[in-house]
Amino acid sequence: MDSLHCPAARFSITCSYSREHKLRIGVGRFNRIVTAKMHGRILITADKSSRRMVPAASMAEVDSSTKTRIRQNIPTEKQLVDRFRQGMIVEGGVGYRQTVVIRSYEVGADKTATLESLLNFLQETALNHVWVSGLLGDGFGATHGMVRNNLIWVVTRMQLQVDKYPIWGEVVEVDTWVGASGKNGMRRDWLIRSHVTGQVFARATSTWVMMNQQTRRLSKMPEEVRAEISPWFIEKNAIQETPETIKKLDNTAKYINSQLKPKRTDLDMNHHVNNVKYVNWMLETIPEIFLEGYQLFNITLEYRKECGSSDTVQALCQPDEDGAQGVNGKIHIEQPQASEIGDAPSSESPLSFTHLLQITGDSKTEEIVRGRTTWKRKPKAIH
Amino acid sequence: MDSLHCPAARFSITCSYSREHKLRIGVGRFNRIVTAKMHGRILITADKSSRRMVPAASMAEVDSSTKTRIRQNIPTEKQLVDRFRQGMIVEGGVGYRQTVVIRSYEVGADKTATLESLLNFLQETALNHVWVSGLLGDGFGATHGMVRNNLIWVVTRMQLQVDKYPIWGEVVEVDTWVGASGKNGMRRDWLIRSHVTGQVFARATSTWVMMNQQTRRLSKMPEEVRAEISPWFIEKNAIQETPETIKKLDNTAKYINSQLKPKRTDLDMNHHVNNVKYVNWMLETIPEIFLEGYQLFNITLEYRKECGSSDTVQALCQPDEDGAQGVNGKIHIEQPQASEIGDAPSSESPLSFTHLLQITGDSKTEEIVRGRTTWKRKPKAIH
C-alpha cells in the first residue's frame, strides 16, 4: 500500500484517493472522531473514546458526567430483526433487508422518489446492516476490530442504476450485502425492490478500502477484521460491472458551473459537503430542458477528495458526442413528445454525460469526484 | 369570506393569504391536480380524476389503460394500525402516532436531527393521519367530502418549538391530532417525544382554512365535511399560543440576502419552492458565527404567497433590539465558551430574529412568508 500524508487541516477532514492510491486525511473538527465518508457522506467513524459498550434503556441518553449525549444500545450480538428500523437479516444470515415507505417529502415534482432519497436509503441500510450484525464499534460502521486497529473505511467507487423510481407511498425493500473486493477491499451491493411484486427498481454497488486513521496509510485488512467481516461476504453482484475509467474533463467541457459555494445546510457532521450535494451540483450543470424530459438511469462516481465548507467548486459536464448521443459535439435535445413517453425504457440509445467536480484554488485545481450519468426518457407524468 | 382572484398563471400555483383574508391561487402545471401547500410543501390535493377508489395489490401499479402509475390501496375505512408506516390510532381513536427512527442522513453536523427533518416528520405524519383515518380522497389529505366540494386546505400559520433535538438512531414518537380553529378552520398539532422515556422533544401547531379550488374563494366548512372531520377534533393544544403579529420588515433590515434563485431540487411536485427551502433561506441570513453557538428553539411562520421556480427571492432578517437581545440595534454575538454550553436551556433570555421572504420583481415586491425565530445556546457537541 502506498503512503498517506496528513496535512495540517485543523477544521477539516480531507480525503483523496488518487490513481496512485495515495490517501490523505486531515484532522476532523471533533478530534476524537476521525471519519471517512460514504460516497461523500460520512462513512466510517472510529471514535477512540467510545470503545466501551454502554447498554442503556435509551438509544440516546444524557451522560450525566459529561453532559454529552451519545448513541447507546448498540447491539453487541447479531440481531435477526430490528423492529424499529423494520430491518431483518436475510440471505442465509448475512444479508440485510429493510422495508421503507416512500415518504411525501422524498418524492420530487413527478411524485417519484428522488435520486437523493435513493442514495440516502443506500447509506442508511448499509449502516443498519452493520448495526444489526453486532459488529458495530460505534459511529459510522467501523467494526470492533477496526476500532482496535484504528481503521476506517474509505469509499472509492459507487454505481447506482435505476430501472424505475418508486412512487410516493410505495413500500419498497432495500437489500444490502457485502463481498470481497480484491484482497483487502470490500464490495457493498444493494437491490431496491417492490415489496408487493418483488420487481427490481434499482441496483447499486460500491467499493471500499481500509485505512489507518492515524498514519493515514491504506491498510491491509488485519486478520482480526477479516475474521469479523469475511463470514458476511457473499458472492453475489447487484450489477455486473463493466470496468470503465471515467475520463477527466477540462475547461473545454460544454457545460461549466463555477463559483459553487457550499451552504451550511449542505454540510454533514464533519463539515464537509455531502454526497447528495455533489450529485445535485453535477446534475445542475445539465440543461433544464433535458432534465424535464429524461430521467437518470445510471450514475457512476469515482471519489478523489473531500470538499470542505470553505472550498469553491467548479462542476464540469460534457455530453457524449458519439453515435445517437450527440451531433457534432452538440447534444441534440428534443422536447419529448407525449406520444413518445412510455413507461418502458425507450428503445433508443440512452444519453450519457461525463462529469467532474473540482475544487478551484488560486494556483491549482483538485478533483473531488468524477462521474458518468446515463439517461432515458421519462415515463408519463403520474396523476 | 372575502373574494379570491385567479390570475392566469399557467405553470404555477400561487397562493397568497393576506391580512385581508384574500386568497389567490393560480393553475397548477398538472391541470387535473390543484393543490394547496402545507407550510410551503404541497398540502392538500383534490384530483378530480381520481375520485374512485381502486383497491389493488400494490401501492403503486401501472394502470395499463393509461400507462400512468397511481397511488393505490388508499384505505376506505379507518385503520387502527399501519405496520409499514409504523403508525397507529391513539387518543381514544382520533389521534395518530408514528414511530420514527432518526436516520443517518437526517442529522446535521452535531449528529442531531435537523430542523428540516423535524418539519418533514410533521408533514409526513399529518398525511399519514388522514391516510389511516379512511377519509383520504386522494392526493394530499383532502377528504372525500372535500373532493366532492372541490375544496383544498391552505395553511396560514405554523409554529414549531424544539426543546431538544433527537440524535442519530434515536427512536421517537410523533403524535398528531386536529381540532377546531374558529368556525371554519382547523388546527393541527404535533408532539415529538422520546419513545423510551416519553420526554417531549418538540411541539408544533398549525392553522388551516379551506378553499374552493375552482372559484379560488375561501370556503365555509360544508356540513358533509364537518361531519367527516369534526369527530376527529379534540381540545388539546401542543403549544399554548401567544398570538403575535409578526411585523413586516423592509429594506432597512440588518441582514439581507438578495437574488436568491430556486434550484430544480428545491422544487416540489407543484414546481414550487418547498418549505424547507424557505426555512433554509431564512436561517442563512443569520451570521454563521451565531448559528455555530446557538440552536433554534422556536420558529413561527405566517404564509402569504407561494414562490415559483422563476421567482427571485429576497430574504430579510432583523435581530431583536430590546433588552438582552441586542445592543444599540446591533446584535451582540459572542462565541460561546465551552463552559457556558450546557444541555439545559440557558437562563439568559433567548435571542430572537424577525424574518421576511419576498419575491422581488421589476415593479413590486410580494411577501412569501414572515417568520420569527428564537434561539438558545447549543448543548455540548455529541461525541
TrEMBL record, chains A, B:
Keywords: Chloroplast, Fatty acid biosynthesis, Fatty acid metabolism, Hydrolase, Lipid biosynthesis, Lipid metabolism, Plastid, Transit peptide. Residues 252-376 form the Acyl-ACP thioesterase-like C-terminal domain. It comes from the Eukaryota. GO terms for cellular component: chloroplast. Pfam families: Acyl-ACP_TE (PF01643), Acyl-ACP_TE_C (PF20791). The keyword Transit peptide applies. InterPro entries: Acyl-ACP_TE_C, Acyl-ACP_thioesterase_NHD, FATA/B, HotDog_dom_sf. Residues 95-229 form the Acyl-ACP thioesterase N-terminal hotdog domain. The keyword Lipid biosynthesis applies. Its EC number is 3.1.2.-. It is found in: Plastid, Chloroplast. GO terms for molecular function: acyl carrier activity; fatty acyl-[ACP] hydrolase activity. Belongs to the acyl-ACP thioesterase family. Plays an essential role in chain termination during de novo fatty acid synthesis. This is Acyl-[acyl-carrier-protein] hydrolase.
